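Handout, section B. The chain below has 560 residues.
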Amino acid sequence: MFLPYAPRRSSLAVAASFAFAGLFAFSANAFAQQKSQAERRAAQEVYWNPGDEPPSMDPTKQADSVSGAWLTHLFEGLMTTDKNGDMVPGAAEKMSVSADGKTYTFTIRKNAKWHDGKPVTAQDFEFAFKRLVDPAYASEYSFIAETAQIVNATEIIGKKLPTDQLGAKALNDSTFEVKLKNPVTFFPSLMAFNTFFPIRKDLVEKHGDKFATNLESLVGNGPFKLVQWQKEASMRMEKAPTYWNAKAIKITALEAPVMVKDAGASYNLFRTGGTDLVGLDFERLKLAQKDKLAIKSHSDGAVFYLQMNTVDGKLFSNVKLRQALSIGINRREYINKISAIPGDKPAFGVIPDYMPGSKKGSTYRKEAPLAFKDGDLAKAKSLVKEYLAETKQAKVPSFTLLTGDSSTAKRDSEYFQQTLSKVFDTEVKVDSVPFKTRLQKMRDSQFDVVAAGWGPDYLDAMTFADLFMQNNSNNHGQFKDSKYDELILSAQKSADPAERINLIKQAEKILIVDKAAIAAYHQRGRAYVLANGLTGVRRAQVGGDPDFRFASWGGAAAKK
């Protein structure tokens, strides 16, 4: 799923006094009716700052990590994850698989209920699955049904068959059957992902385009219920008594009282007891160390990359310019000087280091190494010179880098603006916009180069590899390569682990080296601090992050 920028090291000084002064005034008003940290601890409530408004609360439509974090708490799929991140039954109490691995049968829990008390049925899942692939709805995540190899998904998305031919049917109220074209080893993991959450047909029909845009139209089946939603300002969820496993949920409420993008302001908010979790960029990491806070870190599984618009007529439709950009940036310099957070690593390919390989204990990257000279400015300039000679131009036209408007995104964009200006010897402009605006511009391919990121939807290399197929609506640079598509389709159909890895390896080389459609640069690490006494917050590589379903207050006193 698409990611906003998380706090990381700044290469520039922050105008802290101005930012903090504004925050103090804002916080005094925003928190007038809110509980102190001590009161939250006593009431088992948690405050956090997601930084951005969720672009969509519709499970079938969402495609970003901010929305995903909320939806993970509001809904539950057939499968879910436990406190260790292992796959366990969710809304379905039982899953059985046919001997050939092509038919999955799920038994819905008798006590699975929606937040309004109505029972969760197999028909709710059938409706959601068919809505996902319905061309009339045009979900940008419909491709994941093809990844899952659900029978007739490809034909329905391509408008060759009606949606009622999808291999996902309710056999009765409590039995849901999914038929696959080919076995998919990670299929149970897919059934925990947001796009396969159940959806109520009656609510969609009643609210139409307004579905999941307000409290009345948004009814979930998960451990928390949305009770307040002030657009662009605050959100609050409370423990749902209707949830089948409600007694296991300790936190009674999860609230975002504000949505602050500035890393310094967010840290200050945490230090004054306004929130109970904060991410740390480099400056805040040093402050937290100085303040002797208990700093935690984890790798969140995300990969960041510069994606180029390859549409005919666009500047980066030229492969030599794309290759120049890819080898011209210096990934190690970026990690050492700009991000510098524990767990950060340079990314050379789109598939991160931790993804499993074909053998137990191995990883994809060990089996599919991908290397080229990093920060090769001389070679990059040579490619630019070749482009100018071929196109009979004296200078590369100016172009624009699309990025977010958080403090971290702005700092990153300044670094890449300077770097790319050296590579191409031309003016590089920056278009810094809010998260939702950036997503829309990406969907409309309104960019030359965009700073993008993707987090894994399931634990398999395919969650990154299939993004750049021609028919994938998340392929915003509109990269087109028939050989790439052929390799990925073959990998999707293959049940041989070693063959799958080899096929994806060949495809990744096309994407990264031969055609250079993207320039991956960063595997993200996260440093963060929790309030004293808050335990059980799970930081996830796959699924909603942060995950508060297993959290609780105890131990040391909280701020009053």
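Note. Confidence is low (pLDDT under 50) at residues 5-32. Compare this with the example in section A.
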